[in-house]
Amino acid sequence: MKTRAAVAWKAGAPLTIETIDIEGPKAGEVLVEVKATGVCHTDYYTLSGADPEGIFPAILGHEGAGIVREVGAGVTSLKPGDHVIPLYTPECRQCKTCLSQRSNLCTAIRATQGKGLMPDGTSRFHCDADPVFHYMGCSTFANFTVLPEIALAKVREDAPFDKICYIGCGVTTGIGAVINTAKVWPGANVAVFGLGGIGLNVLQGARMVGADKIIGIDLNPERVAMAKKFGMTHFINPDEVGRDKVVQAIVDLTGGGADFSFECIGNTQVMRQALECCHRGWGESIIIGVAGAGQEISTRPFQLVTGRVWKGTAFGGARGRTDVPKIVDWYMEGKINIDDLITHTMPLDKINDAFDLMHEGKSIRSVVVY
Ligand code: NAD
Ligand code: AHE
Ligand code: ZN
C-alpha cells in the first residue's frame, strides 16, 4: 500500500512530503495508522547530522499514537482497532535485560533498530523501489508505519491521540527520569537544566513526588511562566548570573547543593555544571540530553570521589508496555498536565514549521495531526 510521509533525504535538509510504498506487517509485526506525532529535539538532532546512528533517507519521528490496522502472523497481544503508542524502547519481557528488572533497555531488536531496519534486516518503506530507513523503530512521520509487536503499548481508547502521543517520548522521559531513574524523594532539592519539552516534564515529576526547591535553569526567559506552572520554585538565567556562576548560585540556594539535577539540553558543558551543582556526599546528576557525535563529558574525578553520582536515562527508565498505559491513565485522571505543553499543532505538510518553532524557542511541543 501507499502512505504519505515526511522523508529526511539528507542531513540538514528540510523534510519533504512524499507518497511512498509501505509493505504490510511480517510475522511478529503490526501495521499502525499514526493519528498524531510530537516533534522532539532528538528528531532535529538526527536530522542535523549530529547523530552517529543517523542514516538517510529515513522517516523520522518517534513520539506517536495511533490505531492498529493489521497484524502479522503470530501476533497475539494486539488486534486491528487497538489504540497504541509506539515504543523506541521496546519491552520483550524475555531478554536478559527485561528479565533482570534492573533496566528498561530491552536488547531484543536494538541492533537492527539502530541500523534503521526491522528485526529481519529489511525496511518496510520504499520510494521508487529504493529502501527508505526506519527511525528509532517508530517512523511516526509517516501516516502508516510498521513496528514489532514488542514495540507497541496498548492504551485506552478514550484518550486523545493529539495529546497522548507526547507520552511516547517527552512526558515519559521527564517524569520517568524523576520517578524511575533518580527516585527523587519528598523534600529533595532539584535542579533542572533546560526547560523545554523534557525539562518541563521533569519539573512536573519533581512536584508530583513532593520535592522542596525545584530550580529551573534556562537561557530563554520566556520559559519562566510555563515552568512556574509546572512546579519550578526558583529560576536561574545563566546569562544574568554569569555562566560560570550557575553552580555557585545553586549551591547557595540549596544550602550545599542539589540532591538531584537533570540535564535536559544535550550540552556537555552544562552536563558538567549539572554534576558539580550536586550536594557533596550524595547528590545525583541525571543526563537526559543527547550530545552530538564525538562529544565527551569531563569533570575532576574528585567530584565523584566526594560522593556525587553521574547517571543517565533513556525513556525515563520506563518499561514501555507496562508503564506507558499507566501514564495515559494519569493523564486521563488529571494527575499530569500535557495539554499546556502542546503549544502548536499542524498538518503533516507543515512539519518543517515544527523545527523552526523549536529553534526560535517559541514552542514547547509541536504535534502533527494526520
Ligand atoms: P527543547 O529544545 O524543547 O528544550 C531545550 C531547552 O534547553 C530550551 O528551553 C533551551 O532554551 C534550553 N537551553 C539550550 N541551551 C541551553 C544552555 N546552554 N543553558 C540553559 N538552557 C539551555 O528540547 P527537548 O525536546 O526538551 O529535549 C532536550 C534534550 O533531551 C535533547 O538533547 C533531546 O535529544 C534529549 N532527549 C533525551 C531523551 C532520553 O531518553 N534520554 C528523550 C527525549 C529527549
Ligand atoms: N543514536 C544516538 C543516541 C540517541 C539516544 O541517546 N537516544 C535516546 C532516546 S532520545 C529520545 O528522544 C535513547 O533512548 N537511547 C538509548 C538507545 O538505546 O538508543 C547515538 O549517540 O548513537
Ligand atoms: Zn524524543
From TrEMBL:
Has high formaldehyde dehydrogenase activity in the presence of glutathione and catalyzes the oxidation of normal alcohols in a reaction that is not GSH-dependent. In addition, hemithiolacetals other than those formed from GSH, including omega-thiol fatty acids, also are substrates. Also acts as a S-nitroso-glutathione reductase by catalyzing the NADH-dependent reduction of S-nitrosoglutathione. GO terms for molecular function: alcohol dehydrogenase (NAD+) activity; S-(hydroxymethyl)glutathione dehydrogenase (NAD+) activity; S-(hydroxymethyl)glutathione dehydrogenase (NADP+) activity; S-nitrosoglutathione reductase (NADH) activity; zinc ion binding. Keywords: Metal-binding, NAD, Oxidoreductase, Zinc. GO terms for cellular component: cytosol. Residues 12-368 form the Enoyl reductase (ER) domain. Belongs to the zinc-containing alcohol dehydrogenase family. Class-III subfamily. InterPro entries: ADH-like_C (IPR013149), ADH-like_N (IPR013154), ADH_3 (IPR014183), ADH_Zn_CS (IPR002328), ER (IPR020843), GroES-like_sf (IPR011032), NAD(P)-bd_dom_sf (IPR036291). One of its GO terms (biological process) is formaldehyde catabolic process. PROSITE patterns: ADH_ZINC. This is S-(hydroxymethyl)glutathione dehydrogenase. Pfam families: ADH_N, ADH_zinc_N. It comes from the Bacteria. It catalyses: a secondary alcohol + NAD(+) = a ketone + NADH + H(+); S-(hydroxymethyl)glutathione + NADP(+) = S-formylglutathione + NADPH + H(+); S-nitrosoglutathione + NADH + H(+) = S-(hydroxysulfenamide)glutathione + NAD(+); a primary alcohol + NAD(+) = an aldehyde + NADH + H(+). Its EC number is 1.1.1.284. Its cofactor is Zn(2+). SMART domains: PKS_ER.
